[in-house]
Amino acid sequence: METNTGTNRPRINWLKYASPKTFYPLAGKLIPWCAVSAAVLIAYGLYIGLLVAPTDFQQGEGYRIIFVHVPAAWFSMFLYLLMAMYAGLGLVLNARLSYMMATAIAPTGAMFTLIALVTGSLWGKPMWGAWWVWDARLTSELILLFLYIGYFSLQAAIDDKNRADKASAVLALVGAINVPIIYFSVKWWNTLHQGASVSLTQAPAMAAIMLKGMLIMAVGFWLYSIAVILMRVRCEILERDSKTAMIRQD
Amino acid sequence: MHWQSFSEFISMGGYGFYVWGSFGVTFLAMGLELWLVNKRRQRISQAVKQEAI
To answer: Are the C-beta atoms of A148 and A106 separated by less than 8 Å?
Structure first.
């Protein structure tokens, strides 16, 4: 029966994709596209970052770490917010796919946090003379890593999947307060860490070609994240749902 | 092209260890993550096949 919505446009039932069963094949179709474009963009970003971009007038060639450090740090924070959003959506709608997405995002977010910390350390040593300092930016980023670890430890510790999802979702949401703290730490506190290289309100504090390389790398990391998270959420769906039905659809 | 020679490119103006270390760690971690997810997928489809038999 036709409902009276007042429009003649064909309506796509987006909610259909909220079901793991219909999302599984869709995710499967998206993965190769994301993976291939990620590879192309990352290769292009590396070409600009390592071969084209000029020497920095202050930090010499050492600044090139920025091309992996900044995108990794951005996605460590962005993926946390995305994970918390899916976890919150799971709590509100009691949607299983949302919980599965949150679970699938966590390891990639944690990996980017670790990359940001390690590359930051490798950058700090030659520039500041120390592998690590307890300043606001570094400490809050380390707390982010602990939040990710706490999130999946809590999931692993509770046997009942439903309860594990809910408890870890609460942790993810509470921990989200740390993300703005990381982001604004360089403004709020006097830290050793340099300020934002790119902001929405000011002209970027770097040469156009350097900015271009960094942004291309960031988009590449984003597409990589989508590909690997979709791969993981498919595993999650298979492990939690009836397995055979899914495989046959593929 | 920014570099005059290959050895200049490798030494990164004396920052070679830090620059190559950073890029190495980053792509090693990403490659490892892909490998682990792929292994997990293979393990699951193996289990599914055995279930079907």
So the answer is: yes
Express each pLDDT in A144-198 by its tens digit.
Answer: 999 999 999 999 999 998 999 999 999 999 999 999 999 988 888 877 888 777 7
Instruction: Decide if A11 is inside a domain.
Output: no
Query: Which residues on chain B place their C-beta less than 8 Å from a C-beta of chain A?
Result: 1-3, 9, 12-15, 18-19, 21-23, 25-26, 29-30, 33-34, 37-38, 40-41, 44-45, 47-48, 51-52
Chain B residues with CB-CB distance to A123 below 8 A: 18, 22
pLDDT on residue A1:
44
Identify whether A4 is part of a domain.
no
Enter the pTM of the model: 0.89
**In this complex, is the C-beta atom of A103 within 8 Å of any C-beta atom belonging to chain B?**
no
Torsion of CA A210, A212, A217, A218, to 10 degrees: 110
Helix or strand (DSSP H, E) at A22: helix A20-46
Q: Per the structure, how many domains does chain A have? A: 1
